[in-house]
Amino acid sequence: MPSVKYQKGDMVMGRWPGSSLYYEVKVLSFDTKSQLYTVIYKDGTELELKEQDIKNPAGFQTRTRSRSRSRSPGRRRSRSRSPARTTRRSSSRTAAAVAAAAITESAPTTRRDARLKEAIEVRLSSLDQTKPAENNSNNKHEKKEENNTANKVDEVEAEPEKNQSRYNLRRRKDDGDAKEAEAKPEQLEEKEAKPAAPPSAATTPLDFGGKIGAYFWLLFLPAWVLFVILQVNLEDPSLANFPPPVPPLETFWDGQALGFVILWILFQALLYILPVGKLSEGMPLRSGQRLKYRTNGFFAIVLSSVAVAAAAYQGVDLTYIHSHFLQLAVATFLISVLLSVYLYVRSRYAAPEHLALGGNSGNVVYDFFKGHELNPRIKNFDLKFFCEMRPGLIGWCLINFAMALAEMKQQGLDAPSHSMILVNIFQLLYVVDGLWNEEAILTTMDLMHDGFGFMLAFGDLVWVPFTYTLQAYYLVSHPNPLSLPAVAAIITLKLGGFYIFRKSNSEKNAFRRNPADPKLSHLKTIPTATGKSLLVSGWWGVVRHPNYLGDLIMALAWSLPCGFSHLLPWYYMIYFIILLVHRDSRDMSECRRKYGSAWDEYCRTVRYRIIPRVY
Ligand SMILES: NC(=O)C1=CN([C@@H]2O[C@H](COP(=O)(O)OP(=O)(O)OC[C@H]3O[C@@H](n4cnc5c(N)ncnc54)[C@H](OP(=O)(O)O)[C@@H]3O)[C@@H](O)[C@H]2O)C=CC1
Ligand SMILES: CC(C)=CCC[C@@H](C)[C@H]1CC=C2C3=C(CC[C@@]21C)[C@@]1(C)CC[C@H](O)C(C)(C)[C@@H]1CC3
To answer: Running DSSP on this structure, what letter comes out for residue 145?
Structure first.
């Protein structure tokens, strides 16, 4: 490795992923393509680290004086557990133990010390218990009851990173750019002032094809929405009609359509801020803080339905949505662009602890696309949560309903067709379920890890309502009569998919919220170095993303009512396969980064990603 900073065999300090702690590691190799170092920790965990997560050991020292001042006996006892001073005993421990021990040392109060110590001691014994089990392939993973001990760490660990950051004299690079963290006592600290990281240093590998990819997606995604909208009105919507006939420029714009979109978003915002419904806690952030979210989505869709019904009753012609679909989409696109510009600008001034790990490549276009601020809020109004769960999602049902009315009008029907009813009810069920279980969104990738930028703003506001409605839009002018057995078969498929989707999402959500939940005590888990465990039985033992499997089966049931005459109504199915396969691989890398060897162990046990025995 001639041109790289650290050489094979070098002993250096490597940051533990997702924390501010540095442990002594040995460099094993460097991959020029990914620019990642493979390092090995003393406990045997191998991880890939970026150069900026590696430091020279000479830059660290341990302040023993301040440690010995510790008032807590628990803390004093835990001194020798410092990962930087790993003893023979600790070197045989798993990284989980090491990480847990690190938390003990940083606990600030005696009571907390005691709780942590208790949790850690039980945890260590739990980990010890796993050792022999690991050799036994039939009983590889501890039972949930044993793992509950690890969960005690979870309980006390509501603010893990807050504690861990006490070890950090210098701010983490991924924490952004500006201020220096306060020097705290009791820490491994860097001796020399090192040049600060350039503000734009990327802290995660670039996604979506990197910088070039971002340009591409920025142009392609809106163009694709335009393409499918123009296609769906054609008598024969087929790829053979590429490019579709483009209407005169002035038809793209309608001020009234913009007005309606703004009114809809404001109405949804009003419902969101009403002090009705539960205040749910999000997952702990890196700072240890937990944000609160008003999860009144079900209430919002019920009130929206009442408002829409009242408007229809008053003679408002909802088929306007069908006849002005293009103009509504363009107006919403404009709003999503303005919102994304605002998000990009404010992310430049956001406090480091509010930033996501990605979206800081330094390339304006990439960062604008990916988004950098994790939970942009105006006071308590959470923009990402609101956009993901309200105007687009509820708008999707409103548009579907308008398409059913348009079908009746256009086809001269007294009631919508069976196909239209199926599509409407299936997708309504999906949205209502999402809003009923709104709290579960707080444990998804978008809410926990992704910054809020153009991709999500456009995805939530434009992509969802204007492309997820294509099946209903298609049926308006492309009737597809269904036999009763076909209807029954499609309903069965939908219910099957829904069952898998709901059960698996609820299982993971319940486990993440309360790992000690007695209802989950039958499940087996794998402990990880972060203190969190991974489910390895139940739905999450069937495949690594059972929720995606259920979602895909449902997507199939949404396209089938449209028949096989054209590819267009199958667009959602095709797009969804691509989206979920990509999300799965993003999540895999993220989990591998977070959980290291525990994740590899999970992957070895649960071999398939989404479809059992296939993929
Ligand atoms: N209709 C649509 O357009 C879309 C729908 N969806 C749906 O949204 C839902 C959420 O999807 P998404 O956010 O992508 O992913 P998940 O809800 O599957 O979240 C992934 C996270 O779950 C945790 N996890 C993974 N494996 C395990 C395990 N074995 N045990 C415990 N926790 C585990 C990890 O986070 P950690 O360990 O940090 O908690 C991981 O990062 C899915 O049902 C998906 O189908 C998603 C995208 C688009
Ligand atoms: C091509 C492009 C711009 C992609 C952006 C992706 C977004 C459209 C999706 C990312 C995750 C989503 C989720 C839902 C809708 C689509 C987006 C925003 C979701 C709200 C749909 C309803 C479900 O019940 C859900 C709550 C599980 C789901 C969460 C993820």
So the answer is: H
